[in-house]
Amino acid sequence: MKTYRASGVSVGISGPRVGFLEILANGRRVDPVKYAHIVEFGRAAVLPRNVRALSDGADFVAAKAKAYAGEPFMRPTFDEDRTRAQAAVSREIAREIYKGAAK
Questions:
Q1: CA torsion 77→78→80→82, rounded to 10°?
Q2: Given CB 3.0 to 4.6 Å as the disulfide criterion, which of 25, 36, 44, 103 pairs with 16?
Q3: The model's pTM
Q4: Half-sphere exposure (Cβ direction) of 9: Cα atoms closer than 13 Å
Q5: d(CA 31, CA 15)
Q6: Under 8 Å CB-to-CB from 60, ≥6 apart: which residues?
Q7: Are the beta carbons of 66 and 42 closer than 8 angstroms?
Q8: 40: enclosing H helix or E strand
Q9: Do 14 and 74 contact (CB within 8 A), yes or no?
Q10: What is the pLDDT of residue 2?
Q11: What is the pLDDT of residue 23?
Q12: What are phi and psi of 91, to 5 degrees?
């Protein structure tokens, strides 16, 4: 939860945690923040417009990428703990309201 001082707007963001960047033996960087949305929601097939489109800069990866249906992991977890999440958000909102009223 973050509150912007100038406007007084409070924002809560949910998603994959940052700080889990892994550098593989071949030097490739893997960061879950960069692809978690694709795992969660899937993607359509990708057909490149030029031959280098699906390259990692060194190697040609593929001529096309197939569609991926997705494997939800964030939404089911949120649904299981919905009441706890709503209570936590409500507590944080109330705390911010009381803090703002005390000024």
A1: 170
A2: 36
A3: 0.50
A4: 3
A5: 13
A6: 51, 52, 54
A7: no
A8: helix 32-41
A9: yes
A10: 76
A11: 87
A12: -60, -45
- Contact residues for 39 (Cβ-Cβ < 8 A; gap 6+): 70, 71, 73
Residues in the chain: 103
Alpha-carbon span 1 to 15, nearest angstrom: 13
Which tokens in the block code for residue 8? 């007084």
Token pair listed for 43 = 């993607």
What residue segments make up the domains of the chain, in order of their start? 2-101
Token couple for 9: 């707007």
Contact 21, 30 (CB under 8 A): yes
Tens digit of pLDDT at every position of the chain (103 positions): 677 888 878 777 777 778 888 888 888 888 888 888 888 899 888 776 665 556 666 666 666 778 889 999 888 888 888 888 888 888 988 988 888 888 7
